[in-house]
Amino acid sequence: DFAVKSVQPCTAFEEVYIYPNPANNQINVAWNNLSMVSIELFDALGHQLLENTIDSKAITQLEIPTSNFSNGVYFIKVNQQYGAKTYKIVIEHE
Q1: What SS3 state is found at 17?
Q2: 38-79: per-residue pLDDT in tens?
Q3: Which of 54, 75, 92, 94 gives 20 to 30 Å between its CA and that of 69?
Q4: How far apart are the C-alpha atoms of 56 and 44, rounded to whole Å?
Q5: Nearest Cα to 13, choosing from 90, 73, 59, 77?
Q6: What is the pTM of this model?
Q7: Quick one: pLDDT at residue 13?
């Protein structure tokens, strides 16, 4: 027999911020203390629209212009040394 007494969240992903949501002109992806980050942007059908790998602790933010993307739902996948997580974001142009 065993019992789960507590579950610890993956604290590394608590250091990834994606804003604003909904986005109008650009999407900001920011992080702290990560030496390598890969950012992928997908449309609602799963087509990859962007991939950017950053291999430096000196860079802590990526700005993604949204002017070439239609209004709708998109997914940002953040890959880092601790694993990967996907975030949902909405683009709404005024």
Answers
A1: strand
A2: 999 999 999 999 999 988 777 889 999 999 999 999 999 998
A3: 54
A4: 30
A5: 77
A6: 0.81
A7: 56
